[in-house]
Amino acid sequence: MHATAQIHLADSASFKATVQANHELTASMITVYDGETYQITATGEWQDAGYTPSDADGFKGMNAPMFFGMLLKPLPGEPYMKLCGKVEGWKFPIGNSTMVKMKRSGKLYLFPNDAKGYFGNNSGTMEVTIQRVP
After folding, report:
1. What are the φ and ψ backbone dihedral angles of 13, each rounded to 5 degrees?
2. Which of 74, 77, 91, 105 could form an S-S bond across to 33 if both were Cys, CB 3.0 to 4.6 Å?
3. Is 66 helix (H, G, I), strand (E, B) or coil?
4. Interval 52-109: pLDDT, tens
């Protein structure tokens, strides 16, 4: 296993990360600290299986299998394929753009909100900009 370099952003600095729809979790390369605030924005398009492509806000609506798989999503109350983040077990919605005050310290991970075990049928990417707010 190789060590992965992590970055801690200075005030107002930003970093870009690419999130693949078919990856359950993507390391952003950013280390965040409890109490810091970040503006996170995303552009791109991704798709869950044969469903309508969506931006980072995910898509509304679902069929019967998706309804029953809802509890298998990391954030069950958020739309399928919504861009989300995770730091040390704390998960939060991002979508196309959000300002978030970190509640934990650690590595920032990014992911599409899809049912566990069903990432392999996804396609597309999001380009995510993470900027530390002073």
Report:
1. -75, 155
2. 105
3. helix
4. 899 999 987 766 666 666 778 999 999 999 999 999 999 999 999 999 999 999 999 9
Q: Which two tokens stand for residue 24?
A: 């359950």
Q: What is the dihedral of CA 107, 111, 115, 116, to 10 degrees?
A: -40
Pairing of strands 80-87, 57-59: antiparallel
Return the DSSP state at 22. T
Q: CA-CA distance, 6 to 73, in Å (whole number)?
A: 27
pLDDT tens profile 9-31: 999 999 999 999 999 999 999 99
The pTM of this model reads: 0.91
**Smallest Cα–Cα separation from 97: which of 19, 40, 36, 28?**
40
CATH of 14-133, one of 1.20.1250.20, 3.40.630.30, 3.20.20.140, 2.60.120.430: 2.60.120.430
